[in-house]
Design goal:
The chain has about 675 residues and is an alpha+beta fold. It has a domain at about 410-670: Alpha/Beta hydrolase fold, catalytic domain (Rossmann fold), CATH 3.40.50.1820. The strands form eight sheets. It has an eight-stranded mixed sheet, with helices on both faces. A hairpin with a 2-residue loop joins strand 14 and strand 15. Helix 6 (about 500-515) packs across helix 7. The protein is globular, with a radius of gyration of 25 Å.
């Protein structure tokens, strides 16, 4: 890999800017009359072809298909005859949620009942051969799988065991893990085992490994070698050298440190590929860490200009060799170390429209003749094709959302906008179909959740496209504190809830108005989770900037993040994460109060839409309950709606209902002169 460093770096640096540009100009589609608009359900309903994966040897495809009943199933086809598929796994009252290849003959898949509340036994992990035979349940969502009235132990694992990964070592085994939580809510210990998907027999791998491990890595021979531990605000890297049974601490750093190491894969007995930052570069890149020498190579294997690499490695696991990586700049792309695969990528890219992002899926990939291609763009939610390299032909397998005509969707463009303090803010605009030209349209500021995550890119987005289809310019900002854009961008958001993070949204709204994209006098703000918090703080921090504010599952009281009696934030994160990222509850009490929408609700002078999942444990209903009561006492116009949901949407009908309410709510607010 080392010999490819310079070439790969050059590709990354040269291409990053190009990815950030809009697609080539073309004739825009005509705006659709209101009567022909697609419904909210059309945008948020599950994909018909939800996922697909290629067998390790490249001979078969496993697909998640949504049947006419609305249930997701597993179907298998030969890659050279993809239209001749067979459903090999399905439930009458549940969905298949994910599917993975164990080997070239066998699959492992997860299933669960629809809805947020899953009854005992209503979910599990299963395995099946590619012809539908040899079905076996591996995990059942029950507290015990002992046989009633006997001492016989079933080989079906109980609730608490999860699929950790597959191996591709020729066996029928997969990796399973069982986290064991301390009273504080942090992972104290846990088991990592090999589970034979045909017999149910397990073999322990993590005996003697360090406690508090949150990530494990195996070598090409299937031996556990690396464990990452998070404890007491520190991140530790432990290694078990080949030929030994002793674990040694090789690296330790503060949690959320600028130079923190994210272990990705072993390449050789002592070389660990990590994502990290080095002195002199703000963005995260791919590096090699020598475990025996406890030394990081400062020369990057791969990097991008202006973006964290955030690599998803493509590996031939039998050889322990990294073939390439998927990354995400203004939109996703793939960097190949293997020249043969790079050549196939160029062939596929050249055969499809220039605005498409095309991901190859090929099992072990090397020596493969046929490739599964996932192709998408800002207007195409997703299309699956099969590329035959020998014949140089592409065959369409199907579209993920066939009911969404590509020309009915709006263009999405990427921009960088300076904040008031000069910090560059990445921005994605979604234009109403046929209205890519500058015009002062009503606007919706769509704020991502997290907030310490990457938000949007230029690919198709359901909520943004739905709102844009109603004639509104949709603005998505990677405000400070978002990840993916370097350490400076992330660090600038620490302890800035309701302050500079909020100012970023107002600054981009003002830019959109100055540039002629939006009418600043007809703009609303909407988001979920942190985005819901920002929506509620919007008319408080910047009165007059927004015509309305809509929040789903939004935080309303920052102190509740620390002391809510019902929630899923661990004690570890409350002790070491939240104080650094949000503030100390005692020391910063006054600032936290000033930055809480609940405490300043009387300052809101615009209508508010408040949605909440009654089973939400991340942002418990207490946030919405207290805010609604205070808003009504203060005379704020507030509309409240509850759903039998958790923190994110599970039921399509609930999501569609909220989007219809949101549409009507925004339409009323921006219609007035």
């Amino acid at each position: 890999m080392k010999s490819l460093v310079l070439g790969l770096l050059a590709f990354g640096l040269a291409s990053a800017g190009a990815w950030a540009q809009p697609a080539p100009a073309e004739r825009p589609p005509a705006a659709r009359p209101a009567a022909e608009r697609l419904s909210a359900e059309d945008y948020v309903r599950p994909a018909q072809l939800a996922d697909a994966t290629v067998s390790p040897g490249g001979g078969h495809i496993a697909m998640l298909l949504t049947a006419d009943t609305g249930r997701r199933t597993v179907a298998v086809a030969r890659i050279d005859k993809p239209s001749e598929f067979k459903v090999v796994a399905a439930f009458s009252n549940a969905n298949v949620d994910s599917v993975h290849w164990v080997n070239d003959r066998r699959l492992v898949y997860t299933g669960s009942q629809p809805g947020y509340i899953v009854q005992a036994g209503g979910a599990g992990i299963f395995a099946v051969d590619l012809d539908g035979s040899n079905q076996r349940q591996l995990v059942a969502w029950v507290n015990s799988t002992s046989q009633i009235g006997t001492r016989i132990q079933s080989r079906v694992l109980p609730y608490g065991w999860f699929l950790y990964g597959t191996l591709d070592d020729g066996s029928d085994d997969v990796l399973m893990h069982q986290p064991i939580f301390a009273a504080s809510g942090e992972v104290q210990s846990g088991a990592l085992v090999r589970l034979n998907t045909s017999t149910g027999v397990t073999r322990a791998l993590s005996v003697g490994a360090p406690d508090f491990a949150t990530r494990w890595l195996l070598d090409a021979q299937g031996e556990l070698r690396v464990a990452q531990v998070v404890r007491d605000g520190r991140e530790q890297l432990h290694w078990r050298a080949p030929g030994t049974n002793t674990w040694q601490l090789v690296d330790e750093r503060a949690l959320n440190a600028e130079d923190g190491l994210e272990p990705l894969a072993l390449e050789g007995p002592e070389e660990l590929l990590v994502a990290t930052r080095v002195a002199g570069r703000d963005t995260e890149a791919l590096h090699v860490y020598n475990l025996r020498k406890r030394q990081l190579d400062p020369e990057a294997v791969a990097a991008l200009a202006g973006f964290d690499l955030d690599p998803a490695l493509v590996m031939n696991r039998r050889q322990g060799r990294v073939l390439g990586l998927h990354t995400r700049a203004a939109q996703p792309a793939t960097l190949w170390f293997d020249e043969a695969l790079a050549r196939v990528q160029r062939q596929v890219d050249g055969a499809l429209p220039g605005d498409r992002r095309n991901r190859l899926m090929c099992g072990r990939c090397q020596g493969t003749q046929r490739y599964l291609v996932h192709s998408s763009s800002d207007r195409e939610a997703g299309e699956l094709l099969v590329f035959d390299a020998a014949a140089a032909t592409l065959s369409r397998l199907g579209r993920t959302h066939p009911w969404l005509p590509e020309d009915s969707q709006g263009r999405r463009t990427f921009h960088r906008v300076p904040a008031r303090d000069g910090l560059p803010l990445p921005v994605v605009l979604t234009h109403p179909p046929g209205q890519e030209a500058k015009a002062a349209l009503p606007a919706v500021m769509l704020v991502h959740g997290g907030p310490w995550v990457r938000g949007s890119d230029r690919l198709w987005s359901a909520e943004a496209q739905f709102l844009a289809s109603r004639g509104w310019r949709v603005i998505e900002v990677e405000f400070r504190g978002s990840t993916g854009f370097g350490w400076r961008h992330f660090r600038a958001g620490w302890q800035q809830w309701g302050l500079a993070m909020q100012d970023d949204l107002a600054d981009v709204m003002a830019w959109a108005a100055r540039e002629g994209w939006a009418d600043a006098g007809r703009a609303c703000i909407f988001g979920s989770s942190y985005g819901g918090y920002a929506a509620l703080m919007g008319p408080i921090r910047h009165p007059g900037a927004w015509r309305c504010a809509a929040s789903y599952a939004g935080v309303t009281d920052l102190q509740l993040l620390f002391n809510a009696t019902w929630g899923d934030l661990s004690a570890q994160f409350k002790r070491h994460g939240l104080p650094a990222l949000v503030g100390e509850p005692q020391r910063d009490a006054e600032r936290l109060e000033r930055s809480s929408p609940l405490r300043r609700v009387a300052e809101i002078q615009v209508p508010v839409l408040l949605g909440q999942g009654v089973y939400d444990r991340r942002v418990p209903p207490e946030h919405a309950d207290r805010f609604e009561a205070a808003a009504r006492r203060a005379g704020v116009r507030v509309e409240r709606v509850n759903y039998d949901e958790g923190h994110s949407w599970v039921e399509t009908r609930h999501h569609a209902d909220f989007m219809r309410r949101l549409e009507a709510f925004i339409a009323r607010a921006v219609a007035a002169p």
